[in-house]
C-alpha cells in the first residue's frame, strides 16, 4: 500500500510539473492543441501568455515561446535603380517585433526567426525599390531621404501584417554610388579642378608679368631721373670748380700755377714704378729748379 501511494504521488508530481510552464521577461508564449494555436473562448484571437507562471493541459497542450522584443534586421547592401535609371548602393536596417503571435507562428513555419527575416527582407526590398524608383538621385540624397523612409514604413506596415509582424522603423544608413560611377565622377571632378587650377596659374603668371613690367618701368624711370640729377649736379659742381679756379687764378696767377704744378707732380710720381724721360729744362720742371735755372 505504501508503495502504491509513492507511485501515485510521483505520478501526481509529474502531471503537476508537466502542467506548468514559465514565460520569462521579454518573451510571450502560445499554446498549441493538437498542432493548432489555442485561441480564447468565443474569439479568434490567440491565447498569448505573458511573463510569469502558467498552467496547461498535460500531454495535450504544447507551449511555444517567442521573442517579443524589438528585433533589428540589418539588411545587406543592395543595388537600387532611381527614376533616372541610375544605380545606387543603399545600406539600410529595419526595427520590427511580433504583433500577432498566431499569424507569426503559422507564417514562419513554427516561429522560425530566419524564415521571418527572409520574408520581411523581400518586402523591405520591394518597398524601397518602389520608393527609390520614383525619385531622382538629387531627391534621395539632398532632402527626401526622410520621405523615402516614411513611405517605405507605411508600405511595410501593410505588407508585413499578414506575417504577424509590425515594422517599428526603417532607416537608410548609407547611400553610395557604384564603384564605376564613383570613379568616373571623381575623374570628372579632378579634371574640373585641374582646369580651374590651370586657369588660376595662368592668371597668376599674367599678373606676375604685369607687376614685373611695372616694376621694370619704375626702375628705368628712377635710374633715368637719378642719372639726370647726377649730371645736373656734376655740371653744377664743375661750374663751381671752374669759378673757384678762375677766382684763384685771378687773385694770384703765379701761386695758382705753382699749386697746379704740385698736383701734376704728385699725380705723376705717386705710382713710384713709372719711368719718364723728359728734358730737364722743359716747362714741366720749372718749379723743380733753383733760381739759377739748375734742376734741384
UniProtKB/TrEMBL annotation:
Protein name (database record): Protein HflC
Family named by the database record:
Belongs to the band 7/mec-2 family. HflC subfamily.
Name the Gene Ontology biological process terms: proteolysis
What does the UniProt function comment say about this protein?
A: HflC and HflK could regulate a protease.
What kind of membrane protein is this, topologically? Single-pass membrane protein
Which stretches make up the Band domain?
18-189
NCBIfam families tied to this protein: hflC
Amino acid at each position: 500500500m505504501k508503495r502504491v501511494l509513492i507511485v501515485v504521488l510521483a505520478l501526481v508530481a509529474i502531471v503537476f510539473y508537466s502542467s506548468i510552464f514559465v514565460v520569462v521577461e521579454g518573451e510571450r508564449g502560445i499554446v498549441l492543441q493538437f498542432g493548432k494555436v489555442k485561441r480564447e473562448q468565443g474569439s479568434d484571437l490567440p491565447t498569448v501568455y505573458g511573463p510569469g507562471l502558467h498552467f496547461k493541459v498535460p500531454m495535450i497542450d504544447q507551449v511555444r515561446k517567442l521573442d517579443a522584443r524589438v528585433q533589428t534586421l540589418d539588411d545587406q547592401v543592395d543595388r537600387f535603380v532611381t527614376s533616372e535609371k541610375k544605380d545606387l548602393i543603399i545600406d539600410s536596417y529595419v526595427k520590427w517585433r511580433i504583433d500577432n503571435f498566431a499569424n507569426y507562428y503559422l507564417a514562419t513555419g513554427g516561429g522560425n526567426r530566419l524564415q521571418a527575416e527572409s520574408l520581411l527582407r523581400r518586402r523591405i526590398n520591394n518597398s524601397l525599390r518602389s520608393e527609390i524608383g520614383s525619385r531622382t538621385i538629387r531627391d534621395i540624397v539632398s532632402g527626401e531621404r526622410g520621405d523615402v523612409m516614411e513611405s517605405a514604413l507605411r508600405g511595410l506596415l501593410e505588407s508585413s501584417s499578414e506575417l504577424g509582424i509590425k515594422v517599428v522603423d526603417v532607416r537608410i544608413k548609407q547611400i553610395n554610388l557604384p564603384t564605376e560611377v564613383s570613379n568616373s565622377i571623381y575623374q570628372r571632378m579632378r579634371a574640373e579642378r585641374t582646369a580651374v587650377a590651370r586657369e588660376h596659374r595662368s592668371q597668376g603668371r599674367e599678373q606676375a608679368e604685369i607687376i614685373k613690367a611695372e616694376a621694370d618701368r619704375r626702375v628705368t624711370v628712377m635710374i633715368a631721373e637719378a642719372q639726370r640729377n647726377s649730371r645736373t649736379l656734376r655740371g653744377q659742381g664743375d661750374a663751381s670748380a671752374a669759378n673757384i679756379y678762375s677766382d684763384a687764378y685771378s687773385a694770384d696767377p703765379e701761386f695758382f700755377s705753382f699749386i697746379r704744378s704740385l698736383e701734376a707732380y704728385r699725380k705723376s710720381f705717386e705710382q713710384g714704378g713709372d719711368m719718364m724721360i723728359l728734358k730737364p729744362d722743359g716747362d714741366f720742371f720749372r718749379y723743380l729748379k733753383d733760381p739759377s735755372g739748375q734742376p734741384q
